Amino acid sequence: MITIDVSPEANPARHPLPKLTGSQRSWQGRFEAMGSPCEVLLEGVGRTDAEQALCHAAREAWRLEHKFSRYVSGNPVDRINQSQGEPVTVDDELALMLDYAAQCHELSDGRFDVTSGVLRRAWRFDGSDHLPQQDEITPLLKLVGWNKLDWQRPQLTLPKGMEIDFGGIGKEYAVDRTLLDLKRLLPDGSSVLVNFGGDLACSGPRTDGKAWIVGVEDHRRLTNSNETLSLHGGALATSGDSRRYLLKDGIRYGHILDPRTGWPVPDAPHSVTVAAPTCTLAGMLATFAMLQGADAEDFLKAQDVPFWVQRSTA
To answer: Are residues 60 and 81 in the same domain?
Structure first.
């Protein structure tokens, strides 16, 4: 096992250093970012190229985490959330994310909303049976609504008390961005798969022409996947409530909230996995399907994409 050293500036959150394992021309790099285990699988490259690719992937994941996380004091998202109604000028990358957030809001008929993170003040999805009262939720709904902010690229004005949260789209963007960089960096004839916490994308089939074999997590057994998929190209993304939910009177409340009501989406699946050309698109469709609740399968069939839905059999 090789531990890859990176400068402190490239690892602002002081994550454990990336580790590379493998031999000859097949490698696996691992590190942590965005609250998830991350890995980069590489074939058709030597050790030096593998080390450089892993180092770049970790730096890029950490950069994006530091830039877009709502938990980092003083970063661009924090400055927006602390702006108290004053306009904030953003860079091109953040503008791209805001444009995408606006598109998601429109395409989902308001079900997907990056301003809905304030609802976490009422909800704690810790597996307990504690449900908030409606009088805790109602005041927060006044602080939710993409249409309440003013986005005129490159300037965003967020009403006082409102927040934005890119948690629903940031990781998928990071996967696509990292894969694009690695495809440019690595030599012809190589193959790479980028997996950030189960959201993943690959450059194509493995160097021998075979598919990458990936697992779909079973919400009933978090340590082992019960189904594997063959991926020759493109991406997979999953949205679900395997780890974040409440359970009261036999009813399971998942963490996917409808921003229009402030409550979990009724009759939502436990998880949705979607295959698409990019991880960003796969993640959007998986989340949109969860927000459709009982109509998740019908929604996905209309999109004409491969998908896997898990619901309770009880």
So the answer is: no
